[in-house]
Each structure stands twice: as structure tokens, then as C-alpha cells.
TrEMBL record:
Pfam families: GSHPx. The active site is at C35. GO terms for molecular function: peroxidase activity. CDD domains: GSH_Peroxidase (cd00340). This is Glutathione peroxidase. It comes from Pseudobutyrivibrio xylanivorans DSM 14809. GO terms for biological process: cellular response to oxidative stress. Belongs to the glutathione peroxidase family.
Amino acid sequence: MGFYDLSVEQTNGEMLSMKEFEGKVVMVVNTATGCGFTPHYKDIERIYETYHDKGFEVVDVPCNQFAGQTPGNDEEIHEFCQLNYNTQFPQMKKTDVNGENATELFKYLKSQKGFEGFGKGPAALAMGVMLKKIDKDYKNNPEIKWNFTKFIIDRQGNVVARFEPTADMKKVEECVASLI
């Protein structure tokens, strides 16, 4: 099974096949509307606008598994994103990215790129301290650690990078640009 064999549920209940993105560079990201990282929407939208015409797509998967930071239904989440960040990329149905109810898409992404750390800096340190209280073994499992974990898939369907929410968005853009 590969990336193009997977699908994710859209807000209208229909499944979106990743095969529709064959030959494109894709960012799959789990998002939240009430998180300290929510301003990442601004950068994701800017990157989308910059590279979309060159073959870049974003698959936004809202998730409420991290401190309940994605309250509301799909319509409310979509409205929030459009009003506050003018998002134009497709937004999927709110779903789980970890645990027994995790979507197959995220199970696959995690199997391809595990957790490699939060990097350096105050946000990285704070995330490490917080997660150690939740999961003492967080460093040794591939689970999504928090909102706004980004996976980058190249034009051949390979998962080439995983960026934790603490990653500098300039590095994320550099990765996307290198694949365009």
C-alpha cells in the first residue's frame, strides 16, 4: 500500500482519494482552530498560494485529539479558517490521527516518517516538557504529538519529510520549493 492507495473523508462525507494528487507535491497536516500553533494557517495558505499553480496541494485534516483544541463541527471549523486565514485549500472532515480510530492516511504517514524530535528553542523545550507528562515514551513512538504536524509527499508519492509544529515554517517552505 502506498500514498496514492489511501483516501480521507471530506466534510461532505465523500472520500477524497490521494490518487487525485498523483504527480503533485502534497502537504498533509492535522490542524486545530484553538491552538497556539493555529497561526500556521497563515503560512500554509501563503505557501499554497505561492506553489499551487506549480503543482502543490494541501490536505487539511482537523483533529480534536490534542487538548480539545478543535471544538465545533466541520462547518464551524471551515468558516473559522476562511474568515481568519482566507484558506483556499481543501479541508477534510474532523477525524482522529492517533489511536484505534486514526484514519488510514495518518497511520500510513506515521509508518513512513516517525517522530524525530522538536528541534531547538523555547517552543521545542515547552513541547517536550508537556509531552513527557502525557507520554513518558513520546520520543520513541511515531504518534502525532500535537496539532500542525506536517507531512510532505513528493511527486512520486513518497513521504519525504515530517515537520513537527515547532519547525520553522521557512524550513517547511524550503522543502516544498525543493520538490516543485
